[in-house]
Design brief:
Chain B: It holds the Pfam family BPD_transp_2. The complex is a heterodimer of chains A (about 290) and B (about 300). Chain A is mainly alpha-helical and about 290 residues long. Chain A has one domain: ABC transporter involved in vitamin B12 uptake, BtuC (Orthogonal Bundle), CATH 1.10.3470. In chain A, the strands form two sheets. Chain A has a two-stranded antiparallel sheet. Chain A has a two-stranded antiparallel ribbon with strand order 2-3. In chain A, strand 2 and strand 3 form a beta hairpin. In chain A, helix 2 runs antiparallel to helix 3, helix 3 crosses helix 8 and helix 10 crosses helix 11. Chain A is globular, with a radius of gyration of 19 Å. By secondary structure, chain B is mostly helical. Chain B has a domain of about 200 residues. Chain B has 13 helices and two strands. Chain B has a two-stranded antiparallel ribbon. In chain B, helix 2 packs across helix 10. The longest helix of chain B has 26 residues. Classes of the chains: A mainly alpha (about 290), B mainly alpha (about 300). The interface between A and B is large, with 42 and 40 residues.
Chain lengths: ~290, ~300
């Protein structure tokens, strides 16, 4: 039952991608900006969780919550300082700024603590459970449960609360939403806060699953999560989840077949194929450009 | 008539610069450290100008320029180290193969716009890098040892040809087509400009010179590794043209010279250098989104000063 084990591995990798992709897709949906710094918020989340566990000797769940809170504050600061002025700027200016913010976070981190990787402590119980002949780590199941709870929570916020309704309204038409009395600035801040909190949670989960973190760890998962968001249809929340899981499973399969060095290339090939064949993604709507 | 006069003027100016620097090198006034710095500046100017034609002139946001540089670097290294061909043949082949790579990447991805195009070019550049990483013939992750062959003469001639071709292209019929696409793609299309054709042409020319710059780079640093051509390198090239002004050739040349000189002094502190780069980039984007020079050229600045003079 090797394939079942690979499938579970793929799903747990995919759940991390999905959590990061949600932040990308929410931000893109609301201000049409690819937030390149999102992968670095994920990295900061991993480090905050690491400090919470090693310095303050917290458990997994408190560390996760602290990382989410701090990351949501960082996300809001990034939005207020760097992106707010660029709402009406050209795409090139906005994208360049986002890349700049990303590098600023990475290299400030390296400047203060060096580029050496850190080993994440074991915080989750490690027992192997035998399901249908596949050896599954209890940690994997725990991570999957946490991810699914976070996604259900997000669905609840977006669809059942007032701020969620405001977010959907602003992403649909910011000017009309403003006319209806919605505070657009606060709504955008809230979107960044929620997206960054999910990225922070993904950071802690990534750290405890792969046990190795470093200041540049956010680059590749950030790009992959972006691919997942595009795959699912950028701007669509269920799309980001599905895209994340699909990408995680594909990557695991490519590794399992014996092409682990080509794993990253596979992700980028998927990106290019989806951009060329169906730019709107699986769940996206095709929007025609108006003159 | 006027145009060709200006052209010969610039060429004479370039010759004077070359002669002065060559004289200083020959007489030993500039030692190896400065010679290396001058070559690095030349390579970066070529990269900046070759990206300028894609982003600045045609308005297509590509953030995967290091990928074409990698193609040029590896192809030229294979030519000189594995096949034993002369360096000049390696440079030319590097340019040709990089241009073909540019064509292959450009035709499918230039149908995309804005953010999607940026991400697609980034993806292609990463794929190119991963291919070199996994091919044992070129050394894989350990890289490839390359002889030192780049001299100041090669580098400077490369810069002059790059600037000449690209500035002449910009002032030609093709260049005006590209500028029209930058200003408004739909309007350009409606005016009967074959937008796909011009975008691909600009992209291929940009890739060609990036490949040549890659060849010079490979033969200047003794070793080439796939990590040297990652996203960070594309970002560095992007900074040159963004800082200099999107659409300003002289601006991107000056920014490339200035930033390369600074980064040579900050070589011992790579983190500080990246922090400075990114802070500068963010501040410029927030307060002057068109870059320092905007779309103006250096000579436009002088024209304003002596308005009504004999210049017109």
């Amino acid at each position: 039952m090797d394939w079942l084990q690979q499938l579970i591995n793929g799903i747990s990798l995919g759940s991390i991608y999905a959590l990061i992709a949600l932040g990308y897709t929410m931000v893109y949906g609301i201000i049409k900006l690819i937030n390149f710094a999102h992968g670095d918020v994920f990295m900061l989340g991993a480090f905050i969780g690491f400090f919470a566990i090693t310095r303050w000797e917290m458990g997994f769940i408190p560390a996760l919550i602290i990382a989410m809170v701090v990351c949501s504050i960082i996300g809001m600061i990034i939005e207020r300082v760097a992106y707010k002025r660029l709402r009406n700027a050209t795409r090139i200016a906005a994208l360049t700024t986002a890349i700049g913010v990303s590098f600023l976070i990475e290299y400030t981190m390296i400047f203060f603590r060096g580029a050496t990787p850190e080993a994440y402590p074991q915080v989750l119980p490690q027992t192997n459970i035998n399901i249908l002949g596949a050896n599954i780590n209890s940690q994997t199941i725990f991570i999957l449960v946490v991810t699914i709870i976070l996604m259900i929570l997000l669905q609840f916020i977006v669809h059942k609360t007032k701020i969620g309704k405001a977010m959907r309204a602003v992403s649909h038409d910011a000017d009309a939403a403003r006319l209806m009395g919605i505070n657009v600035d606060n709504t955008i801040s809230a979107t960044f806060a929620i997206g960054s909190a999910l990225a922070g949670a993904a950071g802690v989960i990534f750290g405890s699953y792969y046990t190795r973190i470093d200041p540049l760890m956010g680059v590749l998962p950030g790009l992959k999560a972006f691919i997942a968001a595009v795959l699912g249809g950028i701007g669509s929340i269920p799309g980001a989840m599905v895209g994340g899981f699909i990408l995680g499973i594909i990557e695991t399969v490519v590794s399992a077949v014996g092409y682990s060095l080509w794993r990253d290339a596979a992700a980028f090939i998927i990106l290019i194929l989806i951009l060329i064949l169906r730019p709107a993604g699986i769940f996206g709507k095709n929007i025609r450009e108006k003159v | 008539m006027k145009k060709s006069k200006a052209f010969w003027g610039y060429l004479a100016f370039a010759l004077v610069i070359y002669a002065v620097v060559q004289g200083m090198l020959a007489s030993g006034m500039l030692d190896l450290y400065y010679q290396n710095m001058l070559i690095t500046i030349c390579i970066n100017v070529m990269l900046a100008v070759s990206l300028h034609i894609v982003i600045g002139v045609t308005g297509q946001f590509s953030i995967g320029h290091a990928g074409f540089m990698a193609v040029g670097a590896y192809i030229s290294a294979i030519c000189t180290m594995k096949l034993g061909l002369p360096f000049i043949v390696g440079i030319i082949l590097a340019g040709i193969v990089a241009a073909v790579a540019g064509l292959l990447v450009g035709v499918p991805s230039l149908r995309l716009k804005g953010d999607y195009l940026a991400i697609a070019t980034l993806g292609f550049a990463e794929i190119i890098r991963i291919v070199f990483l996994n091919v044992d013939y070129v050394g894989g992750a350990a890289g490839m040892v390359v002889n030192h062959a780049t001299t100041w003469t090669y580098a400077f001639v490369g810069v002059v040809i790059t600037i000449m071709v690209i500035s002449n292209f910009t002032n030609s019929r093709h260049g005006r087509g590209c500028l029209a696409i930058r200003e408004d793609e739909i309007a350009a299309d409606a005016m009967g400009i074959n937008t796909t054709y011009y975008k691909v042409v600009a992209f291929v020319i940009g890739s060609l010179f990036a490949g040549v710059a890659g060849a010079l780079y490979a033969h200047n640093f003794y070793i080439i590794q796939p990590t040297a051509f990652n996203f960070l390198k594309s970002f560095e090239i992007l900074i040159y043209i963004v800082l200099g002004g999107l659409g300003s050739l002289s601006g991107s040349v000056m920014a490339a010279i200035f930033l390369t000189a600074i980064s040579q002094y900050l070589q011992a502190f790579p983190e500080t250098r990246m922090i400075i780069y990114s802070v500068v980039l963010i501040i410029v984007m927030l307060y002057r989104p068109t870059g320092l020079m905007g779309t103006k050229e250096l000579k436009d600045l002088f024209k304003v000063k002596n308005r009504g003079g004999s210049e017109a």
